[in-house]
Amino acid sequence: MIKSMTGFGKAECELTDKRVSVEIKTLNSKQFDMLARIPNVFRDKELDIRTFMNNKLERGKVELTISVDETAGYENFTINKSLAKKYYDQIMILSSDLGLRPDAQILSTLLKLPDVMKAEPKELKEEDWAIVNGAIGEAINKCNEFRQIEGNKLETDFEIRIGLILGCLNDLKPFEEERIQKIRTKFKKDLLESLTEQKIDENRLEQEIIYYLEKIDVTEEKTRLKSHCDYFLITLLEPVSNGKKLSFIGQEIGREINTIGSKANDYNMQKIVVQMKDELEKIKEQLMNIL
Prior knowledge:
Blueprint: E1 7-14, E2 18-27, E3 32-37, H1 46-57, E4 60-70, E5 77-79, H2 81-98, H3 106-112, E6 117-119, H4 126-194, H5 202-216, H6 219-236, H7 243-264, H8 267-287
Parallel strand pairs: 3-4
Antiparallel strand pairs: 1-2, 2-4, 5-6
Helix pairs in contact: 1-4, 4-6, 4-8, 6-7, 7-8
């Protein structure tokens, strides 16, 4: 079972005088990296929220947005009279300099200026926080469900691509046998051209051919490559998503494919190696998004 790091979850809850909405978006990241957009009333709980989300979401770039809709409006507010007077004095000076008469609606304008009128912050009640915390938990669960669905899609894609790599591995066999015959023919031809008057030592020739074939033999690499691919598929089925482990296995798969390519010395085998590399590259791109 694998899980994607891409997810989305949303939940809402109702308090006595407000409606609270919680949204969580996640993307891939090597570590847990959280950006929180939360109202001041919840700032004291930010550390608890981060710890809670880290435990539940484990890894990824996480964006949390908590928005509050005041259904009952602000009951208590204060007017910063000294600041309003400073604004007023500056407006009157500017009006005089420009030869303008102050507008009759200047009071309403003053009240809209920054920090003149402020709602008095309300203390967060523990029972309200319990409800909001429950909404955060619900959003996290929905986000994890989204991640699981995306992970299932990726798992199917991985199985297909590993299957294609294993299929390419089987396609190498006929070209390996053909390659051996080509090498034997080439060696004998080159010797006949260079030793026109001397008799060829067939035993020595066979020894040299065997020595060369051992150098370019890819049997061990093919065996290891199949083992790594099988291990990759087994790891996909583990109960816990382990993207890092799959990445390590992918590196080992790539190492064996590269070695086969370097030893191939055959055009048809090289084409198959390129196909395997292409499939592996697509796997690696998707592995970056696995939890």
